[in-house]
Amino acid sequence: MRTLTDIQKALDVLNVNLSASSMTLLAQGFSSDNYLVSANGQQYVLKFAHQPLITSQIAIQPKLHELAITPEVLATEPAKGLQLSQYWPSKTPCTAEQLPAIGELLSRLHQIKHNSACMDFQQKFNQYQGLAEFAIHRPVIEVLKAKLSAFDKHLGFCHNDLVLDNMLQCDNEVKLIDFEYSGNNDVFFDLASVSSSLLLGTEDKARLLTYYLAHCKLTITNELAVKKLNCFQLAYDFLCYFWYIEHQQPRLAKQVLTQLISPKLNLAKQSDN
């Protein structure tokens, strides 16, 4: 836990001419420590990232703010992992009630042009091959990878980490934060992460796709979009599960594993046909 003196030192490094009067540690983020800071009569979010900030992801922030996707980033010091942002109060976590806003927001995000490399699912899964848990699920993962590669790609600029804490909502307006993992990817990865984070059922998944497709006009049938979303959600949940195992988060790993059981069994049955 940092002190108010530590917060002031960080503000001085950022050269923002602010005097911190209070600070509160926010309960979010595995890759950073985030503080709500009161300074000069205003409130800000000060991020202490555990790794240096990636310059290409900093460079996209003004565009994200211009499109009303994320709160404004006011100052950064990439080498020290420091970032000061506008504070946007989120009253309650996002739920399925915000699906219209989320679908429209993601359509804006995914149409941004960016020159980042595209996420490689093969590589993502391969980095967890040393885990005992990976060996247990390998047969299903191999079937899943084959199914993922069979879908046409629908590429766009993605957030790639849409856990509940990274989706802020106030009065049904939604903004996204923490773009550390952002880059080009199949847009269904973001849609799948929203579905997983909000624990969407069949009807709400269809609603999410309806709202999203109404804005971005992908060339895909509704039936195929549902199948693709389900496959990508299974991939997303597996990656989250392995990430939690690797980072010694057993409670969260168990929670995701519970979500995996039914779709994993369904996919296993398909592979036996």
Automatic annotation (TrEMBL):
Domain annotation Aminoglycoside phosphotransferase: ranges: 24-213
Superkingdom field: Bacteria
Signal peptide: none
Identification of the protein by name: Protein LicA
Provenance organism: Thalassotalea marina
Taxonomic path: Bacteria, Pseudomonadati, Pseudomonadota, Gammaproteobacteria, Alteromonadales
Gene field: licA
